[in-house]
Each structure stands twice: as structure tokens, then as C-alpha cells.
Write a structure and sequence with these properties.
single chain; alpha/beta; Rossmann fold; seven-stranded parallel sheet; 39% helix; globular; binds NADPH dihydro-nicotinamide-adenine-dinucleotide phosphate; binds dtdp-4-keto-L-rhamnose; EC 1.1.1.133; dTDP-4-dehydrorhamnose reductase activity; oxidoreductase; dTDP_dehydrorham_reduct
Length: 303
């Protein structure tokens, strides 16, 4: 039995990981998150409340559970909030990673950490794993520092970098592009969406599967886990509207200079996922397949 502990189990990735791993043979799953569980089912795993910024709590819980693998999905993920609340961001995205590392060191656990395309400046995408990081936001900087802590940890570690994750979700503290586009258009609200940023949108199921493949093999190093296509948020918004039969005329084109956000976004990221394909057998859905899945799940009223 491989015992896997997940942090941030109430989050977007966390919920999907619990769904994927809870009943998988050979895995004993321990889900942890801040406060009470917001997971939609309670079988197939045990749940513990764990605040990742509380060093003592992290050290004590991980020492008592003694997982073989930790998947660290918890973080402060709102880039605009990170730009304003810098101390809080650093506590979550750097110091907490150090606590998890310290706890894993005590029991020789394999640690999978989740990182982001925002460690890049977005001038040279799509990126391979060895490309040079140069963050342009505080969130990106904090996530780069989190990565650095792993590299110097002496643990057996992996980093899964991902970007613009989309998919169905409930009870989340943060939305995702498909959900906010769909909700706005359903409410008849106009939205302005940028045409001058490029991303490889990632279906949350693919990200969860990428994480599973990494921990199953205990494959070490950095892996880019995203979709394969490069799309702008505007393209994504229009495709979302079309798939759900919503009014595309509510979507206005904007540019990064007219649609300003507190944290700067890198213009062109995107990942090359060849390494993950070759080493892990990672094979993500196309955006069209991902959307088709969402539309059929909506019919079962998940969205
Ligand atoms: N979503 C995306 O597009 C991308 C995500 N990532 C990375 O992937 C990882 C997972 O992100 P995702 O699931 O999408 O984000 P979410 O914001 O949905 O999940 C993050 C989770 O972390 C939890 N959390 C925050 N602070 C604490 C704390 N002090 N103690 C315990 N838990 C805490 C949140 O809890 P609560 O729900 O209570 O707020 C939340 O459930 C993160 O590392 C993120 O940086 C990288 C690139 C893209
Ligand atoms: C809200 C909004 C966003 N956008 C654009 C900006 C951005 O490029 C894109 C997505 O915006 P969001 O605010 O949903 O996501 P954003 O914070 O840009 O997304 C990031 O999340 C963090 C956690 C990451 O690590 C990144 O990889 C990335 O996925 O849509 C608009 O054009 N119009 C809008 O009204």
C-alpha cells in the first residue's frame, strides 16, 4: 500500500485528486485542507484539517501519518491578491513549502509540488522544463522560490508545472476561466477578454492524472503538465460560449494594456509537454475534447 497525503484537498486540483485516488487499488489516501472538508463524498480516504502555514501542525500531522508520498497542492493562488498581500503570499507559497519539506525529510517521503507558468516572463513560450525562469509578478516570484526550496531540499522530489486549469468544480474559493465566462454570459453580462496572451489551457482531470503518473512512478525532476494547444483567453471565451450555446456578442476583445490586473500576466507562456509524454505516458485531452466533456457533465448538472 502506498500512503499518499494531499494538501489543499478542498481546492480545484485537490478535489480532483481525491476523486481520482480515493478508490484506486494500492493507494491509501489522506486528504488535508484548511478547516472542514468541502469534499463531496467521504469514502475511500481519511480527512485531517491542516493549515500549511502552521509549522508545528504540518510537522506533527505528517510525522503521525507517515505518508510515502506528499502531493502539495495548497497555495495562495490568486495572483492579484498575492501582489497586494505579499507577506501572506510568501508565507503560503514559500515558508509553507519549507515546512512540508522539513516534514518529508523526517520520514524520507517523496514530495510532488505544483508550480506554474507564471515563473516565466512570457516572452519565449511555449517553454520546456529547463527554460530560464524570470517571473514578472509576486505570485510568480513566490512560486519560483517554492521550486528553489525543493531543488535544495535533498529529498526525492518532483515539480509539476501547470497553467490555466479549467473544468467543473463546486465549493471552490476561486473560479476558473470556463466557469466565469459561462456564468457571466448566462447572466447576460458583457465581458472583456484579452487577445494578446497565449496559454496552453489544462483540463483539471489531465492535471490530476499527470500528478498520479508522477507519484506512481516516483519520477523525479520537473514536468510540464498542461494541454498542448496555444490559445488566447479570448479564443477560450468564444469557444466556451459556442459550446454552451451562449451569446458570443457579449464578449469584447481587450488587450493587456486596456484590461489591467494588479499582477502582470506573462504574455506568451504555453508548455511543451514532450518530457511528460515520454517519461510518464502523459497524454492530455485536446481543448475540444475537454470542452465536450464539460458540456456532457453540465447535462448531469455538475457545472
Ligand atoms: N488553477 C490554475 O490555473 C493553476 C494552479 N497552479 C498551482 O496548482 C496548485 C493547485 O491550485 P488550484 O487547486 O488550482 O488552486 P485553488 O485555489 O483551488 O486551491 C488551493 C487550495 O489551497 C488551500 N489553502 C490556501 N491556504 C491554505 C492554508 N493556509 N492551509 C491549507 N490550505 C490552504 C485553499 O484553501 P481554501 O479552499 O480554504 O481557500 C485551496 O483549497 C497551486 O500550487 C497553484 O499555484 C499552477 C498553475 C495554474
Ligand atoms: C477575469 C478576466 C481575465 N482575463 C484574462 C486574464 C488571464 O490571462 C486569463 C485568466 O485569468 P484568471 O484570473 O482566471 O487566471 P490567472 O490568474 O491569469 O491564471 C493563473 O492562475 C494562476 C493560479 C496560475 O498559476 C496561472 O498558471 C494561471 O492559470 O483571462 C480577461 O481577459 N478578462 C477577465 O475579465
Amino acid at each position: 500500500m502506498k500512503r499518499i497525503l494531499i494538501t489543499g484537498a478542498n481546492g480545484f486540483l485537490g478535489q480532483k485528486l481525491v476523486e481520482l485516488l480515493a478508490h484506486r487499488p494500492g493507494i491509501e489516501l489522506v486528504a488535508t485542507a484548511r478547516g472542514n472538508s468541502r469534499l463531496s463524498f467521504s469514502e475511500g480516504y481519511t480527512y485531517h484539517s491542516m493549515d500549511i502555514t502552521d509549522r508545528r501542525a504540518v510537522l506533527d500531522l505528517i510525522a503521525s501519518v507517515r505518508p510515502h508520498v506528499v502531493i502539495h497542492g495548497a497555495a495562495m493562488t490568486d495572483a492579484d491578491k498575492c501582489e497586494v498581500q505579499k507577506n501572506d503570499c510568501w508565507k503560503h507559497n514559500v515558508h509553507a513549502v519549507e515546512y512540508i519539506i522539513e516534514a518529508c525529510r523526517g520520514i524520507n517521503a517523496f514530495l510532488l509540488h505544483i508550480s506554474t507558468d507564471f515563473i516565466f516572463d512570457g516572452t519565449g513560450g511555449p517553454y520546456i522544463e529547463t527554460a530560464k525562469a524570470n517571473p514578472i509578478s509576486f505570485y510568480g516570484w513566490s512560486k519560483q522560490a517554492g521550486e528553489a526550496a525543493l531543488r535544495h531540499s535533498g529529498l526525492r522530489w518532483a515539480i509539476a508545472r501547470t497553467m490555466l486549469v479549467y473544468g467543473p468544480a463546486s465549493n471552490l474559493s476561486r473560479s476558473n476561466i470556463i466557469l466565469w465566462v459561462k456564468k457571466s454570459l448566462e447572466e447576460g453580462k458583457k465581458i472583456s477578454v484579452v487577445t494578446d496572451q497565449w496559454r496552453s489551457p489544462t483540463l483539471v482531470d489531465d492535471l490530476a492524472m499527470g500528478c498520479y503518473l508522477i507519484v506512481d512512478k516516483e519520477a523525479e525532476g520537473v514536468f510540464h503538465i498542461s494541454g498542448k494547444e496555444m490559445l488566447t483567453p479570448y479564443d477560450i471565451a468564444v469557444k466556451t460560449a459556442t459550446c454552451f450555446g451562449l451569446d458570443t456578442s457579449l464578449i469584447d476583445q481587450a488587450t493587456a494594456s486596456t484590461f489591467t490586473q494588479r499582477a502582470r500576466r506573462p504574455p506568451r507562456t504555453g508548455f511543451i509537454v514532450e518530457k511528460a509524454h515520454a517519461v510518464l505516458g502523459y497524454n492530455p485531452h485536446t481543448f475540444e475534447e475537454g470542452m465536450a466533456r464539460l458540456v456532457s457533465q453540465t447535462k448531469d448538472s455538475i457545472l
